[in-house]
Design a protein that fits this description.
Layout (H helix, E strand, L loop, with lengths): L1 H16 L3 H93 L3 H71 L5 H15 L1
Helix pairs in contact: 1-2, 2-3, 3-4
Length: 208
Amino acid sequence: LKVAQQSIRTLQERINLETDVNQKIQLQLQLVEAQGQLIDATIKQYESKLNKESQRYENSIKRQNQELDNQSRKMEALTKALQMRSELQDAQKGLFDAANSFYQGELDALVQGERSETKKKQLAELIAGIKLKSALEQAKFEQQSLIMQQQMKSIELEREEIAKRSALNQAKLEAKRAQNALSVAQRDPRTSPEQLEALRIGAIVTGK
């Protein structure tokens, strides 16, 4: 930058001293070119600084998103494990219900065919015991099912929260890039008002 600035100062001095019109025009053209080169160098230096800052920011966002992805995969694996456990429990409940229904049917048939009141009473007590155990097991199945449903709901909410945080990180990244593009354009006097307005709108939209 110092070399470009010195070159511009030298050209300005030569223009002020030059008396030949054609030569003065040539020097003025050189001055315009040198000023353009100075602007390019200034913008490039500013962009380099912004790029370094942006890279650090992007790396931070990427690390956060990787952590969120890892959490999401763990949540997904846990959900699948709970679903398999729920299916296994449903199968166990089905077997239990079928066996229980069969034994109760057999015992009911024995009661109906039994003539001895004493044995009828004993069978009735046995059936009552089986029904009580069946009711307790049924309640246990339902409680376990409710717990798993609550766990899966909690995991689903956590996964939704992770997805929101990941999307927010991506939005922040896009907003940062749009703001950087606007900042560079604002420093460049060659940027047209229309271009500036478009970049400004883009920064506003991505920043929301």
